[in-house]
Amino acid sequence: MESLITLFTEKLGLDIDHFETFAAQLKVKSLKKKEHLISEGSVCNFIGFVSSGTLRSYVKNNEGEFNNDFYFDNDFVSAYTSFLTQMPTNCNIEALTDSTIHYISYDKLNKLIAQDNAFLKLSKYISDTYFIRKCKRETSFLKHSATERLEGLSALYPGIGQRVSQYHIASYLGVKPESLSRIKLLTYINK
Fold first, then answer.
1. What is the spatial distance between Cα 145 and Cα 21, in angstroms, rounded to a whole number?
2. pLDDT value of position 70
3. Sequence-separated (6 or more) residues with CB below 8 Å from residue 179
4. What is the pLDDT of residues 31-69, one digit of tens each?
5. What is the DSSP string of 87-101?
6. 2-116 CATH
7. Which of 42, 60, 122, 142 is most buried, most CB within 10 Å of its CB?
């Protein structure tokens, strides 16, 4: 929770009272490895904060599962489009390790905002974070090779190779696992 306090007091310029008001609304959910935080077809009515653990967001179609995001310690986690629209999500969020999530409901967050518009700073920060992550990922697919996407992913999530299986990393990058192995080998050889 220290990183949430830092976010409130240093990044957002709010005071400790704002954090305490927010923290009083939080609930805790513990997930076992492979347990889902949310599944396709349900409405996401929460914003979570990963206290510990690793999660992945993925979508499914007839060809399989495709990872579109990862969440680590101190990240916000949500099926954010569903959260904003209060419509069913098309994604799934699964714990890759045992994980602990502190979360606030859609209604409770909006009640805080209605009571004190300083909480709009938190809401804007979360929206900006999601927007920037999605834009960077979209741009990387349009502009960069798989090797460059891997470098970008490694820079964004240092140590991801130790926390997430190569299979899931390959899915996120849009390549087959065997292609990822070749990319990593060539990168290593060229260094």
1. 45
2. 93
3. 146, 170
4. 999 999 999 999 999 999 999 999 999 999 888 889 999
5. SB-S-EEEESS-EEE
6. 2.60.120.10
7. 122
Residue 109 DSSP one-character state: H
Q: Please report, for residues 179, 180, 183, the alpha-carbon distance to residue 148 in angstroms, rounded to integers and kept in the order given.
A: 14, 12, 10
| Structure-token pair, residue 153 | 């992913």
Give the angle 138-139-140 at the CA atoms, nearest 5°: 90
- Phi, psi values for residue 72, rounded to 5°: -125, 180
146: tokens are 């798989």
- pLDDT over 80 at 81, yes or no: yes
Given the structure tokens 């349009």, which residue do they identify?
142
Dig out the tokens for 4 from the structure: 């949430």
| R_g over Cα of the chain | 18
Q: Which residues pair with 104 in a beta bridge?
A: 47
User: Where are any strands of DSSP class E within 11-156?
Assistant: 27-31, 36-38, 46-52, 55-61, 64-71, 76-77, 92-95, 99-105
Q: Do residues 77 and 101 lie in contact, with contact meaning Cβ atoms separated by under 8 Å? A: yes
**Better-predicted residue by pLDDT, 131 or 180:** 131
